[in-house]
Amino acid sequence: MSAQPVHYGDSGAPSIPRTQNGVAEALPPADRMEFYREIGQADEHELLGVLRRWWLRATMYADPLPESVRTAVENGTAPGRPAAAVIREALAAREADSR
Predict the structure, then answer these.
(1) Looking at the domain assignment, is residue 73 inside a domain?
(2) Which of 12, 31, 43, 98 can bridge 27 by disulfide, Cβ–Cβ 3.0-4.6 Å?
(3) Domain total for the chain?
(4) Does pTM surpass 0.90?
């Protein structure tokens, strides 16, 4: 038996434009108001980060994940390690190797 390829991006979830209107339309009404509030308060340096974070959230809502998995991801209790921890460890290892 062989492993089947995984096609990321072919999940059947609709593609969400990375625009303010595209993200807003993909969010549930309660989240949409929070999105608009954060967009309205962001300065020019924060704007793209806010848009990216909410686009990821909207994409997650559109993905057909089971509710328990989605809740675990949102709460930070899903299995796995945070990318920030992995990057921090890799940088520390690189620094230790260069000494």
Answers:
(1) yes
(2) 31
(3) 1
(4) no
The tokens 């000494």 sit on which residue? 99
The answer to whether position 38 is within a domain reads yes
CA-atom Rg of the chain in angstroms = 18
pLDDT digits (tens, 9 = 90+) for 33-82: 999 999 999 999 999 999 999 998 998 888 767 788 778 877 878 777 77
| Rounded Cα gap, residues 42 and 51, in angstroms | 10
Distance (Å, whole) CA 89 – CA 13: 34
Domain containing 78 equals 20-97
Q: Which amino acid is it at 85?
A: A
Domain contains 48: yes
